[in-house]
Design brief:
The chain has 155 residues and is an alpha/beta fold. The chain contains 6 helices and 7 strands, in the order αβαββααββαββα. Helices cover 34% and strands 20% of the residues. Strands 1-2-3-4 form a 4-stranded mixed β-sheet. It has a 3-stranded mixed β-sheet with strand order 5-6-7.
């Protein structure tokens, strides 16, 4: 039998709650060196996915000249000892207002070829893996490339 999503998925998935503030989301992205996370509600049910690109969209929606106020690169790379993202009013926004709702999910037994086909067709860079409506993993385009390049399975 061929390899499946379970073989290449990241199993220790960091999730965020939909009412988390964007400044805290930025800290999680920085601390964990990742680009996207599933979003859950208070009942821990999957309600969306949020990425660094969504943060950029937030600032563009506020019609901010990023070069004059604060660059996205600066926002996503704030150091704890320096300025805080909390100092930027837009980062008080809750994640539920910038996430993509109803993310595409697949089961852990989905063949890698099918997983890749879905990611290409839907033009997405990560896909959430579920079992009985519970999040059990996530596969990013980097995970897929790593596997295709002969890197093997994820931890």
């Amino acid at each position: 039998m061929g390899k499946t999503a379970k073989d290449i998925m990241t199993k220790d998935v960091i999730v965020v709650e939909e009412d988390m503030k964007v400044y805290r989301l930025i800290e999680l992205f920085n601390d964990n060196k990742i680009g996207g996370m599933p979003v859950v509600n208070k009942e821990r049910e999957l309600v969306g996915i949020v990425t660094k690109s969504d943060i950029l969209g937030l600032f563009l929606d506020f019609d901010i000249d990023l070069k004059l106020k604060i660059g996205l690169n600066d926002i996503l790379n704030l150091k704890k000892e320096e300025d805080s993202a909390e100092d930027v009013p837009e980062t008080e926004t809750e994640v539920k207002y910038i996430m993509t709702p109803n993310p595409i999910t697949i089961s852990e037994d989905t063949p890698i070829e099918k997983l890749a086909e879905i990611m290409i067709d839907k033009k997405i860079h990560r896909i959430i893996i579920t079992r009985d409506k519970s999040i059990v993993g996530i596969v990013s385009s980097i995970d897929l490339l790593h596997y295709l390049a002969g890197g093997g399975e994820n931890e």
